[in-house]
Amino acid sequence: MSRSDSPLPPEANPSLRRPTDRGPEGPLGFAWSSLRMAWRWLRRMRTALYLLGILGLQTLLATIVPQFPNVPRTVEQWRTGEAGPGRSVSAIIELLGGYDVYGSPAFLALLLLLFTSLTACLLPRYRAWWRVLRRTRPPRSRHLAGQEQVVAFETDAAPDVVHTAARRVLARRRWRLRAEDADPGLPPQVAAEKGHVVREGGSLVFHTSFYVLLVAIVLGQLLGYSGQVGVVEGRAFTDTAVGYWSTHPGRWWDDADHRAFTLTLDEFHVDWHRDPRLGAQPRVFLSDVTVRTEDGREIERTIGGNDPMVVEGMKIHQLDWGYAPRVVVQDDGEIVHDGFLTMTPAEGGFWSGAVKAPGADPDLGFEVFFWPYAPPDEDGTPQLTGAPWADAPYMVLQEYRGDLRLDVAQNVNTLDRTGLEEGEILAMRPGSVAVLPDGVTVAFPELRRWVGFQVSSRPTAPLLLLGAFLVLAGLIPALYASRRRLWVQAGVDPGTGRTRVTVAGRAFQRPQAFEVEHGRIVAALRAAVDELPPSPPAAAQRTGDASTEVVQR
Amino acid sequence: MTEMQLAELSRVLFFPVTMLLYLVAMGLYLYALAFTKVDRGADEPAIAGTRALRLATVVAGIGLVTHLGHIVTRSLAAGGRVPWGTMFEYSSVSGFLVVLAGLLIFQWRMRRPEVVGFLLLGSLLTMGAALLLYAEPGPLQPILNSHWLKIHVFSIMVAATVFTVGFIFNGLHLIRDTAEQRVAEARTAGLTGSTVGAAYSGGAGVGGAPVVVEEDEGPLGTEADRADAPADLADGGVRGPADGDDDVAYGAALRATISPWRLAIGTFLGAATISWVFIPASETVATGLRSFLAINLALVAAALLGWWFVAKLPSAATLDSLAYRTIAFGFPIWTFAVLTGAIWAEQSWGRYWGWDPKETSAFLTWVAYAGYLHARATRGFRGRGAAWLGIGAFAVLMFTYYAVNLVVTGLHSYGGLPS
What we know:
The structure holds two protein chains of two kinds.
Chain A: H1 26-43, H2 45-64, H3 72-80, H4 87-95, H5 105-134, E1 149-155, H6 159-172, E2 176-177, E3 190-194, H7 196-223, E4 225-232, E5 236-238, E6 246-249, E7 262-273, E8 281-292, E9 298-304, E10 309-311, E11 314-331, E12 334-340, E13 344-345, E14 351-357, E15 364-371, E16 394-401, E17 421-428, E18 433-435, E19 440-443, E20 447-457, H8 461-480, E21 484-492, E22 499-507, H9 511-531, E23 548-552
Antiparallel strand pairs in A: 1-22, 1-23, 2-3, 3-21, 4-6, 4-20, 5-7, 7-8, 8-9, 10-11, 11-12, 11-19, 11-20, 13-14, 14-15, 15-16, 16-17, 18-19, 21-22
Helix pairs in contact in A: 1-5, 2-5, 5-7, 6-9, 7-8
Chain B: H1 3-35, H2 47-77, H3 87-109, H4 116-132, H5 147-188, H6 221-228, H7 245-256, H8 260-275, H9 278-281, H10 285-308, H11 316-348, H12 357-376, H13 384-406
């Protein structure tokens, strides 16, 4: 068997390793040989396994330890020791880059090594596969009887005729055949193989798809955009660079790429299964919106949890929602705050937010706590329940006076209490107005809700889909296609004077399936041979009663 | 019937009806395995074995019917939605699929009834763990209400089921392979003069070249043949080692190579790496500890059963091949499931991949099984090394399922557990 005929990938076939050619001597030579060694090390499957193992360990760490880009608040709590395993362990995690595994240099280095190793493995395999594809030469078998599947039968057709018939039968079944004139001087034999190109090709497609995915992900990061914004019922926002609460633009995203549409939240529908067994499981979660594009078209649509809206290539997702009580604050008869608070759920079944009124003198702030369902009992005291439906809204405000320090970046929904002086506590129902002893008036005229939308542009999504498709398209033949070889040799038996045909085969995978296939091919060959006119010496005998021997090892 | 009655019926069908049927079927399969003998030359199992096997098949079949009844009634009780919305339902359907695969693929198509008893055991363990996570049937969260739930979760479930079957084969392979190798070593070391270990020199030839066995090897020749043909799975019916004194001696020799205590302790510790999650996930430490101990002891019992029947198991090479083929079948399904998960995430959450703990651990599982498949093709890892990797990959899968659902909070927290 010549080298190029080997079905095995080169790394499994030591004979394919080229002899090392001597590089230059001296320090340059040392660098050269180290480089070669590193390359060879990267080519080994064992290396790939170790790298996969390290990738696994890093991923495991990222599963157990909260990741800063995902849950910054939890990470903060771990760092301060409020939650998690404590500060000393947290310091170790920090040292290992455990709070941002996927952004850490170690992860990038590993990814680079993995892809280099993949490349190092793939390059020779591409070459070998290309060779198999181009110069296909299924090898001859020297010893047919020694193969796994052997069936022999006798016929009256001449050997040449049988060989031609075998070629036809195998070609029809898409087997690759060894050229007829490939071996002058040797006894004629039909050699065929199947599955080599598909199996190895599938494996190559599978591994190549990772480059497609990598390119799609990296390009997606550079070109993509996502922005998050909360919209109160009846209000609107416009898709511009400054229209969002938070944005994640790619490096190559241009502010001119915004589509400048305006989205109005007409109504938000939310309801729950009000069944104590189910614990207030949500039932409906839908936003009715009207989008007006820059050129004046108006689109009305309902956005659901699994049903985003697409406007000029930008996808609009409904991500979260909250209660938005309108709070009007007057200080000395002057309105210092009139707006909807975008409250966020806090642990314990209530919602929290803040009022910041720097217009008052000194600054006026309120911490706001909101219970959607707090029905009054007999003597009118609100029963604070954790139920999320707003059937009996109840709001508690804690007043603060002092410098709000709004020049420092801070969360809209929390008050920075340093240096603030605590004031009154007031409880309110919708429609109520409270007058504080210091002359401040607080009104709670209405309750609406707000919805958090995400607007995103992912231009490489089709490429990602292509990569995903290639992963599967390659994986299936790589795992399931079986490589098999078949040989047919016919010769005149000197004893009987008839033609003895041996059909031998060997499968590298799935031997049982091949056993069946081998039987079918033998049957097809016999049928093909039987149709032929018998060769002169044995014309009297019918081929139908030809004896068949099955030799199986 | 009202939904409450349906829910009650569904619960009863699950436990005790189906679980008891599976338990009885498992006992019968193992009984058949224990009492099956092969006459030299003929592949006819002894009468007791055949009858027990037939009965076992019937009982397991009835179990499948009642289990299907449970799944359907539960789905109806929850308002006619897909029956895999909570962890309990998911585990239940997974257990169903394991038994279905055992009967249809391994017993009927591959003619390997020896392994069905162990598959039933695996199914029972899955279902037992499901009982610990029992939740009343209820409607789905609206965010789950998507066609992707059917596609993504179903393929995850099928792949996880296939991996569970692969794990059973990997575990049995490790037990059997250890026994075979030690017997062979003992023989080469000349410690035992008998022919007992002789045929098992083939144990080293996992997936490799045939091992030549001397002609006068006696009744054990059949077993050696099977070791030589790793992928030759369709041969014969119920077969154990040959009859006669050699059979008993050989079985004893295989069993004697493994210390049950070490096996038990190892299994307990191995299981504990995952089952600890039941302690923080339970309402009280006492119930958590009880769940923890129950799972570990059940797994120890399973391992000891495998050890007890080591001589009756298929050869190490066959088990290795079964494990590989099973996992190779599951891997593309898992890949598909992860990819559809990414598509669904883009639909639902507005990003295809966010390194959410569940996404991360699903990817970790993928990496682990990719590692197993690569190891299988790497010299030096093939055989036992690969089998250990397969066990590790399954531990990762269990981590993905139990630990991430119960302990780590993320966007995938839909376990449907009473909080």
